[in-house]
Write a structure and sequence with these properties.
alpha/beta, Beta-lactamase, five-stranded mixed sheet, 29% helix
Length: 487
């Protein structure tokens, strides 16, 4: 992949995430307790948080009982930890090699470069129909000899019935890409990527818009400004509320170098039409008709575009906490297991699957969606503990564990201040919620399931307490020396 495309894709994935990055906490000391370790209690006290705000579970993999079980059955809002449930269920129910197909029909003969009919595209929920793969789909059409479409571009989005979503409903931020709704044909997460590149010789920064949207006029350049690179988005003063205009009213600081800005498109209902027509025209294609939605034919397609394997998709979902991709997988579970790509069918799939893995501990669970972007979702620390124990013994354990951020190395844990590489943990963060769940390697060589969730108005201040819990689990040499065999 070209470096610029790599930067654009990385910026988009980051923009789709709700990220929790634990900060440095108190120095750990080994102990064994079913309550909160003293180090965690102290970190909560320093933050001015009551220990009742936290639920926690620490247990050696394969062990019969936990080292820490603090309020283990109290349902807590897990935020993005819910993605652990979605991705683990997806890997088991669909298989790591599962792929999404996007079939394409050329309806009619191709004569002298002209398709005498419609171009039909049917979505099946591919979570990664990003810019590069949209381009590849259009190139496949051109490789079939098509330069002009005499009819329409016809899209079938019937695989999902996700309902209308107002992107401002969750947090009043409609232009945040992570608020995009799921769609059977989700192109580039309905996001726009603005690439801003300084051109000192001309005294401007050039602006490129991807994907090209039919009928949308971006500003071609903005003035360059001197000074350090600080709040470059604020200095640019983007105006994105008008669907036909992408305007930048400020300046760009030359010291920033090239930057990529991902934003949600102001009119998501027209995004698919604008993106398909815009990209086709940018590639030199012509179209005689327009765009419409209708059922795809029952005949075999002319070709189909296959997504990356689910094992790769879950890495994108968990490493950078990608909400939109998690929602695509969530609805796919309903579509494949119940024949209905609806939230109701998908919730029932996850509820039944969870009962089979966590037993009675799952009784109080509340599943709203697959991403955790909800105020109403609830799971207990014991449920997460049982789920992670089951995952450790599952054939898909390698794929699930490798999808989790590695402490101090990558994803949402890249800024972790503890020992790098010792923990594979999913992070979760919303207003009033912060949490971690995953696996920690102890000094003894034993591995532990570790879960910590804080629900409180000042939950963000609990990050040192979560790190203290992780470090306490990792610093287990003294405990295991005193108790060399499992109880």
């Amino acid at each position: 992949m070209k470096p610029r495309l790599t930067r654009r894709l990385h910026a988009l994935v980051l923009a789709l995430a709700v990220i929790a990055l634990p900060a440095a906490g108190a120095p750990p000391a080994p102990a064994a307790s079913r309550g909160l370790p003293a180090e965690v209690e102290a970190a909560l006290a320093r933050a001015g948080l009551p220990h009742e705000a936290m639920v926690a579970w620490v247990e050696e993999v394969g062990a019969p009982r936990p080292r820490v079980a603090w309020q283990p059955d109290r349902p807590a809002n897990p935020a993005s930890l819910m993605k652990l449930l979605t991705t683990y269920a997806g890997l088991e129910l669909l298989g790591p090699a599962f792929t999404w197909a996007t079939p394409v029909w050329l309806q009619g003969p191709v004569v002298d470069g002209v398709l005498q009919g419609n171009l039909v595209i049917k979505g099946s929920g591919d979570p990664k129909l990003v810019l590069e793969r949209m381009w590849l789909l259009m190139r496949r059409v051109q490789q079939a000899g098509v330069r002009e479409i005499r009819g329409d571009i016809v899209v079938d989005r019937s695989a999902f019935a996700a309902g209308e979503v107002n992107p401002a409903d969750f947090d009043g931020e409609p232009l945040r890409p992570y608020n995009a709704g799921a769609d059977a044909l989700l192109l580039n997460y309905r996001a726009l990527l603005l690439t801003i590149t300084p051109d000192p010789a001309r005294g401007v920064a050039n602006v490129a818009l991807d994907p090209p949207l039919a009928g949308v006029r971006p500003d071609a350049s903005v003035p360059l400004a001197a000074g350090p690179c600080d709040d470059w988005r604020g200095v640019l003063k983007g105006e994105f509320a008008e669907p036909s205009r992408v305007a930048l009213r400020g300046a760009f600081q030359a010291a920033c170098g090239e930057k990529v800005w991902a934003i949600a498109y102001a009119d998501p209902k027209s995004y698919t039409e604008r993106a398909l027509i815009g990209m086709w025209q940018e590639l030199g294609g012509r179209i005689g008709g327009g765009y419409r939605e209708a059922a795809a034919p029952a005949t075999p397609p002319s070709f189909e575009l296959r997504s990356p394997a689910l094992a790769e998709i879950v890495r994108d979902i968990n490493k950078l906490s990608n909400n939109v991709m998690a929602q695509q997988l969530f609805l796919t579970l309903g579509a494949t297991q119940r024949g209905a790509g609806t939230p109701e069918a998908s919730r029932e799939v996850l509820r039944q699957w969870l009962r089979g893995h966590a037993g009675n501990a799952a009784a109080a669970s509340v599943i709203v969606n697959g991403s955790g972007l909800s105020r109403d979702g609830r799971l207990s620390a014991r449920t997460f503990g049982k789920l992670l124990q089951a995952a450790w013994a599952s054939p898909v354990m390698p794929e699930l564990m490798s999808s989790l951020p590695v402490a101090g190395v990558d994803g949402t844990l890249r800024r972790y201040k503890g020992g790098p590489g010792r923990a594979h943990l999913k992070t979760g963060s919303l207003k009033d919620v912060v949490g971690i769940a995953g696996y920690v390697l102890g000094d003894s060589g034993r591995r532990y399931v570790v879960v910590g969730i804080v629900n409180h108005a000042r939950a963000d201040a609990a990050r040192p307490a979560l790190e203290a819990l992780v470090e306490w689990a990792a610093d287990d040499a003294a405990t295991t020396a005193a108790h060399p065999t499992r109880p």
